[in-house]
Amino acid sequence: MRLLMMGTGPFALPTFRRLYETRHDVVALVTGPVRMHRGKAVAPPSLLREVARERGTPILDPDDVNASAFQPQLVALTADLLIVCDYGQILTPASLAAARLGGINLHASLLPKYRGAAPINWAIYHGDTETGVTVIHMTPQLDAGPCVAQTRVAIGPDETAGELEVRLAELGAGLIVETIDRFDTGDVQSITQDPSLASKAPRLTKTDGAIDWTRSAQAIKNQIRALEPWPRTYTFWHSASGSPLRVILGPSAVPGDRPMPPHSLPGSVLEAAGDRLLIATGGGVLRPTTIQPAGKREMSIAEFLRGYPVRPGDRFGPEE
To answer: Disulfide check for 105: which of 24, 29, 84, 317 has CB 3.0–4.6 Å away?
Structure first.
C-alpha cells in the first residue's frame, strides 16, 4: 500500500521510522511548518523531517492541510491510507477522502477516555494506574472514530509524563504496523466509541502547573509527575520577611513520612532542616526532594535550605 504519514511532534517519530520497515511505500511526509520569527526558527525543526530527508521522502508542510489550495497535492499522492500521529491539525472529510481507505490515527489513551491534545498528562494527573494506545479509523470529529486496535499498559507509580510518552510512542508504533497490515488484507474489525464514556484531555497551559495545597499530597505528587517536562509544577514560598519566591518542585516529590499535625494549614511548612522539607497539604504531608528557585538551577533540598532560610510556619501557596 501507499502510505502518507502526517505527523509533527516527537510522539510520531517511532511510528514514522517503523513505516520504513514494512513492505509498504511511504509516499510523503505531511508535517507542521517551521515557524519563523525575524528570520529564525521559533523551535527546532521536527525530527520527522530528518528521517524523511534521509529516506528521500518528499516533505509537505502546509499552514492549513485542509485548505482548498492544498487539496490537489494530497489527491495527487494517490495514497491508500493516511497515517496520522501527533500532527496538530484536525482533518476535514475532504482531506480524509484524499486516501482510498481514509486515515488511521494513533492516540495515547484508552479511548474514549482522554480525547484531546494531552491524554498522557491528564491520565497521570488524575492518578490513573493504567493507560494505553488506541488506533482509530478517523472521522472529522476529534478522536471520535471507531477503534480498530488498542493495547493497555500500567503506569509506574513514579513515572512522569515524559517517561510514559516514550514508552507509549514505541508501543503505538508496533500497533500501527499491525493495523496497516489488517487494512491491507481487509481484516479490520472496529468498535464504535461510546460517547457517554468520553472524557477530555485539553492542551496544557502554564497555569495548570500552579499547586493547590488544599489537594492531597498524593494528588500534588501526581500533578508534578503529569507536568514533567512541561509546563512543570510551581508554587511560591512566603517567608516572614521578603517577597514571595517562585519555585518549581521536581518530579521526585513523595508523600511525607510523618503524620500531619491537627489543624495544619495547607501549604504551611512543618519541617525545614538538613535534607527534609515537609509541607502540609489538604490530605497528608508532601516532601519535595528537589526544588528550583526562580532564575536558578534545580537543586537538592539540602542545597536549597542552605541558601534560603525556610522556617517552620512559613507558607507555600499562590503569589498573592
So the answer is: 84
- Whether 107 and 134 have beta carbons less than 8 Å apart is answered as yes
3-class secondary structure per residue, 14-58: HHHHHHCCCCCEEEEEECCCCCEECCEECCCCCHHHHHHHHHCCC
Taking each continuous run of H as one helix and of E as one strand, the counts in the chain are 8, 18
What DSSP string describes 144-170?
-SPEEEEEEEEPPTT--HHHHHHHHHH
Q: What is the CA radius of gyration of the chain?
A: 23
Element (H, E) at 135: strand 130-137
Beta strands in 180-289 (DSSP E): 233-238, 245-249, 254-255, 269-273, 276-280, 285-287
- Residue 194's closest CA among 273, 127, 257, 113? 113
Q: Report the alpha-carbon distance of residue 200 to residue 116 in Å, rounded.
A: 6
Q: Which amino acid is at 69?
A: A
Distance CA 173, CA 16 (A): 8
pLDDT of residue 43: 60
Closest CA to 116 of 212, 243, 225, 203: 203
> pLDDT at position 292, please?
98
Burial of 197 (0-12, 13-18, 19+ CB in 10 A): exposed
AA identity, residue 88: G
Spell out the domains of the chain, with CATH numbers in brackets.
Answer: 2-197 (3.40.50.170), 206-317 (3.10.25.10)
Place of cell 468520553: 198
**Backbone φ, ψ for residue 276 (5° rounding):** -115, 125
pLDDT of 268: 97
**Beta-ladder partners of 150:** 134
Ranges of residues in the chain with a pLDDT under 70 are: 36-45
Per-residue DSSP letter, 261: P
Q: DSSP label at 216?
A: B
